[in-house]
Amino acid sequence: MASMKLIVPLLRRYISIAISLFQSLVLCLFDNFDYPILINLADAFLSLYFITFCDLRPITVDLNDGETTVHFWVSGHRRNNRPDLVMLHGYGGNSKWQFIHQVSDLSKSFNLFIPDLVFFGKSHSRNTERTVEFQARNVVGGLKRLGCSEGGLAVYSISYGGFVAYRIAKMWPEMIERLVIVSSGVGFTQQQKMTEMKKHGGDVSEILVPRSPRDLRMLVRISMNTGIAFIDWVPDFILSQFIAVMYETNRKELVELAKNLLEREEDAEFYAISQKTLIIWGDKDEVFPLEHGRRLHRHLPNSSIEILKDIGHGVNIEAPTTLNNLITSFVLDVS
């Protein structure tokens, strides 16, 4: 009898997954010819991977009377003997695509909370604000709705997510105990940000929010130092489908987020956070060069820095195992 109680919910879960995949396949085949079938199917199978192998569940949280919706992936079984870890992504797709190489390992040591930042993935809003503070408020609002209001959280953030994480640590210091910042231009002046990004030519927002396969290939080459040869072999139609799925629905809003980030001037008190912080940087980062990681380290007395040799901006893609080990050791305080 007890075994039946365990089997029935499991069967319901897998039947639900099968129905969702079948619905996606039907839509792909019959909705219209231009439907980005390959990327949507890949996205559906990523969801299956998160659910089946990482014990993660999709949860949607409505904030401010439904004005903003934040989509999360959260651990299906939250264990009291594991710390809570929030994972904040950067530009380059939704949270599933950015953390695919990390969630399986990290889910074994932590209760995970992985939001799609607003206008990425399934998170959206009718609000016209495009600031980092706006993202921070929505992440915190969602976390509180999910029961993370007592503090003691660890936050791992990369690139754009680092700006959001840092703002959370400053505005809600009681919630955050430890902070991991990876390849993020936190503390940049407006001029520094523009100088670095203009090295790559063209409109910076067009690089971060690509329109064409050529733009997407450029973004990959800028973001990675190793393992980039594959991008030249991916057919244009697949890259076009990826762009359609990841960027087209909220293109305007994503560009506005990028412009706000690049044009804002950080305040002089931005460095004043007390949380223990681990800074991780690739020494071949061409988006935010290593000197800026060292500068951030100097301004944070309670910080340490790890430099990864021959790694570019996309540490989560180029060195996920090393990154996971550093995060786990730091958060669990294992020397």
Estimated radius of gyration: 20 Å
**Looking at CATH, which topology would you report?**
Rossmann fold
Coarse shape: globular
The separation of the N and C termini measures 46 Å
Output the CATH class name: Alpha Beta
Mean pLDDT across the residues is: 87
Order of helices and strands: HHEEEHHEEHEHEHHHHHEHEHH
**Low-confidence runs (pLDDT<50, min 5 residues)?**
26-33
How many structurally independent domains? 1
- Give me the count of strands: 9
CATH architecture identity: 3-Layer(aba) Sandwich
Q: Provide the helix percentage.
A: 40-55%
Structural class: alpha/beta
- Give the count of helical stretches: 14
Instruction: Specify the CATH homologous superfamily.
Output: Alpha/Beta hydrolase fold, catalytic domain
Largest sheet: 9 strands, mixed
Work out the strand percent. Answer: 15-25%
Could you explain how this protein is built, in words?
The structure is a single chain. With 335 residues, the chain is of the alpha/beta class. It has a single domain, classed as Rossmann fold (3-Layer(aba) Sandwich), CATH 3.40.50. The protein is 47% helix and 16% strand. It contains 14 helices and 9 strands. Strands 1, 2, 3, 4, 5, 6, 7, 8 and 9 form a 9-stranded mixed β-sheet that branches. It is globular, with a radius of gyration of 20 Å. About 2% of the residues have low confidence. It holds the Pfam family Abhydrolase_1.
